[in-house]
Amino acid sequence: MDEVDRKMLFYLFRDGRMSQRRIASLLGLTPPTVLYRLKKIMDEDILQGFTLFINPNFYNNYFSFVAFKNYYDMSKDWIFLKFKCIEWLNVYGIRGRTVNEIEDRISLMTKTLGEPAMVYKPNQQPIVPKLIDIKIINQLIKDPRKNSGDVARDTGINSKVVIKRLRLLKKRGYFVTFPRVNIPKSGIVMFSIFSKKVKEVGKILENCKVIEISDNEAGINICLVGSMDEAKDYVKISRNIDKDADVMIIYDYEINTPYIDLEKESF
Question: What are the HTH asnC-type domain coordinates in residue numbering (predicted)?
């Protein structure tokens, strides 16, 4: 891994559907060179593929984030996101059909994992997804980097409509295509900042931020940088804005994306 490889990963974290041609243009390389480098870091088990993150609000669910000391671990189909942090914490994203169901699930986790170190429940408005959007998103669950032309072909939806819907869903924060990266092997530093001033902090983090999940007041920013010193600088500036911000260094992450069965699911 060199600086060029790290920049490639950064671009893919920002947009996991970015084309090799676009990456080549940003880096001043040829597309074959980018292809060679991507294959190399895949062969080295640094880049392990791609996955689709779906905001639970898209399929009419609520969600919360909760952190526990990582003496124990837990995996459930309703845990849609997990960050493993060096601060002896695991951060879980949990989903449920109702706020009460989320409370029940936090209580269930507490019985196994102990008392939570942090709970964050954003203000949110789940939606009933449109059938056309479900069909499109299900194609990306199968192949997160599938191009819009192939999605159109396999769904029978006009390609211009597919492009329009994908842009709209992404803009509204309903999905993100994420690379699956072995963080320790990559040499990059991933960290999260939970803040009650997420928009102000987010402006400071604009150059390193790869994803933001918020209700426009409080939320989480996930960032990538090239060194721990660089991470410390961002944290210091962020805490000048919000001294109570929670910072965690992430060494591994898991994303659990449910396939939406149109015959069984009811919204």
Answer: 1-60
